[in-house]
Each structure stands twice: as structure tokens, then as C-alpha cells.
Amino acid sequence: MRLIVLGTVIDTDDMRQTLDRLVELVADGRARRISHQIATINADFLVHATDDPEVQNILLGASHATADGMPLVWGSRLLGVPVTERVTGADLVPEFAAVAARKQISFYFLGAAEGVAQQAADILIRDNPGLKVVGVDAPTIEAVSSRDPGILQRISDADPDVLFVAFGAPKQDKWIDQNLSQLDVPVCIGVGGTFDFITGRTTRAPVWIRRIGLEWLHRLCNEPRRLWRRYFRDLTYFPGAFFRQWRAVRYNGPAELTVSTSQAKDQITVDLDGALVQSTSDRLRAVMATTQPGSFVVIDARNLTHVDSVGLAALVDFAVAARKTGGSLVWENASTKVLAAIDAASLTRFFRHCAAPAEDLTVDQPPSVAIGHSR
Ligand code: UDP
């Protein structure tokens, strides 16, 4: 299940399901010669996304996004679509190494201070005999910012299945996004300080502290000067923002939705009649699965009575799929209530207001509100 939490997507899968998904994405990436970007999203990252449209678009376009912070776990619970388990980069990489050793999936480690990625690789190979680490690189900050082509060349020569990038969020995720089309690596994951955790350079909180959701407090006590500002901002931002989204998307009415489509050349109009919510959003996903790549999608929302966090995720995925194949997605006739839900979920910028829709797009009078994807 995928939902929107304050302008980013979160997949609710637990660790086991996440690992299965990563194995599937490696196979899919290999078969179709495409790259999937994976994000591990913590609270700080989410705040970045609200300030930076580039980060938001990257996160919304991720093939998989795990909840790597307790605020996201709490937020998903409040929104009625609970994340089963917090999946951090620091937990995911060692678990994935065990699976990769069995399934012949190769890794490449990029980033962290000189020697750290190599040491992390050595530890994972020691603990998982048979694990193939086909490359390790710790480029300098200057080499990364000057876009040294040697970095991409070395990855390309090593030809890994999975690339872990540890430049810290959101720098690593921007780097992956900017280079994805040239990388030809099936799965790329931003992993932040994970190599430092694996090598013991940074110590994690004891498991019981992680379980009760206080790992952030442990980190704050260890690095107060660097982190107090970050946590103060998070603690003051999240409660009100979660409440606002919850109030705008909560729904107890009938879960009924009819999705009908009409096609004219490369434009498909999708008429939503009823409530696009957790139990009905698969109907929209079914239409998405059969839509031609590169389509110009018009969501006619005149009969859309309600949209919740899961329904919004389906719409975001539809917009991303259209955009990635050269098409786009716009809305027509959304009610004030639906627009308020989009706004409370921090998606207004993503679905750009567009009063004068593109050619081909029929507009009803009085002028409909059309929101299109902006990038
Ligand atoms: N790092 C890097 N190159 C950079 C910036 C950071 O290799 O240009 C590394 C840094 O050495 C550390 C990792 O990125 O190993 C993650 O840093 P941080 O703990 O800030 O990331 P977070 O987990 O908070 O996203």
C-alpha cells in the first residue's frame, strides 16, 4: 500500500516485503534496462521536500519509498494507513546483503569518508559469504559537485545491480536523479550515514530505544550542536501539519467509485464518480495499468466526492507514469473540498494550478480548475 504523507509517498511494507520488492525491481530493471530510484525517507528529508520542489518531485517519482523515521510511522497511523515497520537505510543494507548473497545480486558502494565504504563492504562480505561487491568509491566533495565523469565511468565499468549512494539526504537523491538515465543500474538507493553505522563510526541507539521511537533523542544527545535545529524544526512542524492533512482527508462515507474513460487520440479523460479512497483506489490503478505510455491524462473530478491519502498516492503515481513517458496529467472540475485535501497533503505545487489548459483540453464553463503536474 502506498500513501501520501505531507507531500511525499510512503510505502507501508515491512522489511521482508521491502526486500522482496527490491529483488523484483532489480529483475525488472535488468529486463527493461531501466533504473529504479529508492528513497528512505526520514522527517528531515520530508521537511526538505516541502521547501524544495526538486526534492519533492524526486521523492514522488521514487519506485519505492520506505519510512525511515518515526514521525512518518506515526503520521501513517494517524492517517489510517499504518506503516507496518520502520525501514531505515542502516537496517536495510545489511538485510539486503544477506538476500543479495543468495540471489547473486551485485552491489556498488559510493560515498562516505575515505575508507569507510570499503570497510563497510568488507564487513558485509565477511558476514555474507558469496556477496558480490563489484565496486567501492569515495569521491571527494569537489569531484561530486564538479560532476567528475570518472565517477559514472567507474560505476558503468563495474556494472552493478544495486548502487548505494551515501552523500547524505537530499544531496544523494538529487545526484541519483540527475544521473539515473546514464547509470544503467537497475536499483539506486540513497542511504545517508549507513556506511558509518555499519562500520561503527556512528553508534546507533540500543534496540529498545529505537522500538519506542526515540532514536532521534539518542542522536540529539550525541550531536546536540549539529542536530538541535533540525529536531526543533521537526517537532514544531509535524503535529500541526499531520493534523491538517488528517482533517482534510478523513472519510467515513460509502466506499463507492466508478471510473470511466474516454479516449481521443493520445488524450484519455478519466471520469471519477464517488470517493477515491483506500478501498477504491485500485480501480484507478487498473486504468493506469492499461493507459498507453505518453498519454495526456485528464482527470475529470466533477463527481469526485472525496480523496484520501491512498487515493492521492494513486493519482500521483498516474501523473508520474504519464510524465516519465512524455505525457502529463491535469485535473478538471475539482471541488473546493478535493482541492483542500490536495493542499493539506502538500501536493498543490505538484499538481500545478492551470487555469488555461493546454490545447486539446476541453474546458467547461464556468472555467474549471485544472491542476497539472509541474516539473
Ligand atoms: N558524505 C559524502 N559526500 C558528501 C557529503 C556527505 O560522502 O558530499 C557522506 C558523509 O561522509 C556521511 C554520509 O554522507 O558518511 C551521510 O551523512 P549524514 O549523516 O549527514 O546523512 P543523513 O543520514 O543525515 O542523511
User: Helix- and strand-based class?
Assistant: alpha/beta
CATH superfamily of the largest domain: Response regulator
Reading side by side through the largest sheet, how are the strands ordered?
4-3-8-7-5-6
Domains counted in the coordinates: how many? 2
The end-to-end distance, rounded to whole angstroms, is 25 Å
What features would you highlight for this structure?
375 residues, alpha/beta, Rossmann fold, Transcription Regulator spoIIAA, 2 domains, six-stranded parallel sheet, four-stranded mixed sheet, 16 helices, globular, binds uridine-5'-diphosphate
Record the SSE blueprint:
Blueprint: E1 2-5, E2 8-11, H1 15-32, E3 36-41, H2 43-51, H3 53-60, E4 64-67, H4 70-78, H5 89-103, E5 106-111, H6 116-127, E6 132-137, H7 141-145, H8 149-158, E7 162-166, H9 171-183, E8 187-190, H10 194-198, H11 207-211, H12 215-222, H13 224-249, E9 257-264, E10 267-276, H14 281-290, E11 296-307, H15 309-324, E12 328-332, H16 336-344, E13 351-353, E14 371-373
Parallel strand pairs: 3-4, 3-8, 5-6, 5-7, 7-8, 10-11, 11-12
Antiparallel strand pairs: 1-2, 9-10, 13-14
The structure holds uridine-5'-diphosphate.
Structure description:
The chain folds into two domains: 2-216, Response regulator (Rossmann fold), CATH 3.40.50; 257-360, STAS domain (Transcription Regulator spoIIAA, 2-Layer Sandwich), CATH 3.30.750. It has helices at 15-32, 43-51, 53-60, 70-78, 89-103, 116-127, 141-145, 149-158, 171-183, 194-198, 207-211, 215-222, 224-249, 281-290, 309-324, 336-344; strands spanning 2-5, 8-11, 36-41, 64-67, 106-111, 132-137, 162-166, 187-190, 257-264, 267-276, 296-307, 328-332, 351-353, 371-373. It is α/β, with parallel strands linked by helices and 375 residues long. The strands form four sheets. Strands 4-3-8-7-5-6 form a six-stranded parallel beta sheet, with helices on both faces. A four-stranded mixed beta sheet has the order 9-10-11-12. Helix 14 (281-290) packs parallel to helix 15 (309-324). It has 16 helices and 14 strands. Residues 353-370 have low confidence and may be disordered. The structure holds uridine-5'-diphosphate. Residues 111-113, 141, 144, 166-169, 171, 192-193, 195-196 line the site of uridine-5'-diphosphate.
